[in-house]
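ok trying this again, last paste got cut off
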Amino acid sequence: MVDTGFSSFDTMVDKANRLLKDVEEAFGWPKERRKQSYAALRAVLHPLRDRLPVETAVQFGAQLPTIVRGVYYDGWKPAETPVKMSNEEFLARVRSEFPYAVEGGSEKLVRTVLKTLERHVSAGEWQHLKSRVPNSFAALLP
């Protein structure tokens, strides 16, 4: 556990670290690749957020650990969302935002990160998220 001297901050950091650790474990990456797990999470969160209707994006963001929520909202322009994009465009955006090579490519990266995120939000919120995207896009969601 992190010790910032303020228990609420310690809890926030621990929850964010747990999510990053879950991403690392899903890929079999060592802890030394924490920057890579952070980059993977960010590369998936931003296009996902931009693809969602504003209300859904906000409801989903509220479920994320506090520090991860900051990453999720960083640079967001709600007035410009939702951005309509095909699955191929979504995957291309993830590729452009993720500076590392990953076995299985962008689709595996997206599926793995989304599966990890699913474990960190409520089942009801995950179902709501799936119901608010086109069926073709929902196919990427676990």
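PB: full thing came through this time. The mean pLDDT is 92.
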